[in-house]
Design brief:
Two copies of one chain form a homodimer. Chain A is of the alpha/beta class. Helix content of chain A is about 45%, strand content about 15%. In chain A, strand 5, helix 8 and strand 6 form a beta-alpha-beta unit. In chain A, helix 2 runs parallel beside helix 3, helix 3 packs parallel to helix 6 and helix 8 runs parallel beside helix 9.
Chain lengths: ~375, ~375
């Protein structure tokens, strides 16, 4: 495929793969797409290790790194001397204890890889910029910023290194704000997407954003996991697509087996936009976790970001382990960020095969459209 | 455009226009599309008059008629001897009185064109079939059934007359059920659509429905008001598109002026799926009406269909008149069914021009896609 964006970024297909798994990132990049590693899962040291691993496998082909910097954060996160866990109210701790006991999760609290303070502060401008500083020591080809506009220091560092900055948006207003903050590439993400997402559907959002920010190139995200959907997104005016959910059921993905089974079985009605995992609305698999937080009688309601992230991650570490042991209540609670395309995912495939199938189906869809138009 | 569906239905473009205004239906049909009149706005006698008016203007070109037959109805609607208004609880009457007074609507109750019983029962199988019996005396080219599967007597009458039946769906399961009930054409409608709609976005729903019901042809609905969106829908596998919102701001539409102004000013964030107008989730303009019913402290919660329709229509008749008189509270309450594409509608145009612009932009989008694919 020959698009201006492909030439600029040095890829064969304008197919961006967001994943927290280095294996997926390397596989998609090696197949001619553009892998983007979600850095928020890692400490700066871990990120360095992951990127070195990727560097050794992609042979100079381009890949990127994604961070999360919300415009609004719970004030606790900005107080550098505070212990974030001190800000989690007793009611919320009690609710989680009650929930795990109600669902019979017997697995004890798990040791965590990073301190809660370090983990919670990865989503501050300072934390995200720290991750990007590490990434810039590697031959990355893109920095992506989800939620709020990229912090000025991040844009400055990227500019100096000659690396384009992409930013995710859910409204036209956000798109204008991101371009003003220095974004070189906009990812317009519809409500059907997994993870943090707005209310406007991809079909409506993409053309509006394309027209609003032209000539800044736009990628479409949300509802895209096949070549027909890729063709549709590009018919709307996008120069490429940004996919996340479709990689969760690939062979390379480190998705927890219990979650992978739920993803493969789920229909497109089985997702919900919920604040129960991060404190901000994020689409994810409906589960006892989302139901109890969102409509349970005893729910104290989710906290802000990053406090709810800390609450959820600690609980989900236990739930995940218990689900692997086959504890049925834990399987009910287990969930993960995924878009409405989950209804299409019913088979485990290598990531490379997903790329090739999408590109081939894209060509078929375009050929079919062309024949109608004659 | 040459598609199998165009040939079968005798149209130039597979562009279906759902409207309650006969002028829009005739204009789209005369421009080479396929107008579909929403019959639920009329008594059988009125419908006969409207269809005769259309017949005199379209010179034999094809148009259709749409009815609404939900799978589940409030039991009151099925008791032929009951007065439907007797089933509206005191709390709901009081809430409407309180609402109109809170927003300073001084316009008195309005005489209604039809009895509440007749109006409420248009959405029963018997009521809808009565409307279709009238329609079948005209040279219609399509019967469409929204919400539940078409009643067997309606399918039988259509079959005998050789008229195809279309059915709207929001999930794959509904699509299977509609085909089993005898639908010849499926309209897969995404959550971004105006009116009664489900939760799954068009981008995700359409390919799933296309694959599920093949070789039954599928139209895409929801999020489609431009040629790029039409091309996207057809890239997903749809054989055509079904549009409603885009006609509300055409010259021909009889949309109340106060509502038209709100539609032209609205962004794609200004709609909500609410049960406050019909008793079933329907996307519409956010307004004081939807806010008060959906989250007002004193709200008794909406009734089922058709009782909530009666409550809302009577109130909205007063609100509409008061809004025309410039009463500001009435303007706050006024709303109408519309999809997220409302953010694209910022100009009043003749319906014919909308058709030609969509077809022309469709061709441009396909050409652009083809050039990328080479």
């Amino acid at each position: 495929m020959r698009t201006a964006l492909c030439e600029r970024l040095g890829v064969e297909f304008p197919l961006f793969a967001f994943s927290h798994c280095r294996d997926v990132v390397a596989a998609v990049t090696n197949a001619g797409g553009f892998g983007v590693l979600g850095a928020i899962a890692y400490t700066p040291e871990q990120l360095d290790t992951e990127l070195t691993w990727i560097d050794e496998r992609v042979n100079g082909r381009p890949y990127g790194v994604d961070v999360l910097v919300p415009g609004k954060l719970d004030a606790s996160a900005l107080d550098r001397d505070a212990h974030l866990t001190d800000f989690i109210p007793e009611r919320h701790r009690d609710f989680v204890t009650h929930l795990l006991s109600k669902y019979g999760v017997s697995t004890p609290p798990q040791p965590v890889a990073a301190s809660a303070d370090e983990f919670g502060r990865r989503v501050t401008a300072a934390g995200a910029t720290g991750l990007i500083d590490v990434a810039l020591k590697h031959p990355i080809g893109l920095i992506a910023s989800a939620l709020g506009p990229p912090p000025p220091e991040m844009v400055a560092a990227a500019r100096q290194a000659g690396i384009p900055v992409a930013a995710l948006v859910g409204t036209v207003e956000h798109a204008h704000r991101q371009v003003a903050a220095g974004a070189d590439l906009i990812v317009a993400q519809g409500t059907e997407a997994g993870g943090h997402t707005g209310e406007i559907a991809t079909m409506v959002l993409v053309p509006q954003v394309v027209d609003a920010v032209a000539p800044v190139p736009v990628l479409a995200a949300g509802g895209i996991a096949s070549g027909r959907q890729m063709a549709a997104a590009m018919a709307l005016g996008a120069e490429g697509v940004w996919c996340g959910s479709v990689w969760l059921t690939t062979e390379e993905a480190e998705t927890a087996p219990a979650v992978k089974r739920k993803l493969l079985a789920a229909s497109s009605l089985d997702t919900v936009r919920s604040r129960s995992r991060t404190g901000k609305p994020a689409r994810q698999l409906k589960s006892a976790w989302t139901e109890e937080w969102d409509s349970g009688q005893e729910s104290p309601g989710p906290l802000g970001m990053p406090l709810q992230m800390l609450v959820a991650e600690a609980a989900m570490a236990r739930v995940g382990l218990a689900a692997e042991r086959g504890e049925p209540g834990a399987v009910e609670l287990a969930n993960y960020f995924v878009g409405q395309v989950v209804g299409q995912l019913d088979q485990v495939k290598p990531a490379r095969e997903v790329v090739y199938e999408m590109v081939s189906e894209f060509a078929d869809a375009v050929e079919r459209l062309s024949s109608l138009s004659q």
